[in-house]
């Protein structure tokens, strides 16, 4: 199996955390794959018409996308019931939290591109920037109010939220997301110490890439 991979992509990191949690890292060949929203990569497009990573190429020729499907594929392959609980309540709580974490990440990626493409400063006046900021703040406040619940287990929802918060540290230090959110910050410090999270820390290898790709 080959995984279109980048050490900077938070969505790829979800897959890598699942591989570590389920002891399958050795089963996958990772292929460093630069992608940029505004400059589609022909190699990725051939397998995934949306030009996104992670994309998983199976040995029998099938292609799996996106991170949600690939994470669940590996959890099922390992008969995991921790990341994806068997009971309906647990499963839908985990996958709904995953949707929240992934949605936060989608928002952060678009927000960054919006700034960069228009050459706007962080605090520039723009209705889209205001809306992006409001949604991110509202999501973080919501998570702060659920910090106790987050600490109850480590499932795919918690994986996604933990990685989204780490992505804020990587790209959005200016937001200082921990300020006023002590419980969320404490939860994040704890989960970041898990071996699977430590082994998959985001690494900025831009300097080694010819085009300095964003992901
Ligand atoms: N919903 C997708 C999102 C993946 C995604 O946005 N990946 C980014 C890199 S972090 C990407 O491939 N961007 C390239 C593009 O949008 O063209 C998933 O969960 O895998």
From TrEMBL:
**InterPro entries, alphabetized:** Glutathione-S-Trfase_C_sf (IPR036282), Glutathione_S-Trfase_N (IPR004045), Thioredoxin-like_sf (IPR036249)
Short name of one Pfam family: GST_N_3
Top-rank taxon of the source lineage equals Bacteria
Annotated GST N-terminal domain residues: 1-82
Family annotation (PANTHER family): GLUTATHIONE S-TRANSFERASE GSTA, GLUTATHIONE S-TRANSFERASE-RELATED
| Name of the molecule in the record | Glutathione S-transferase
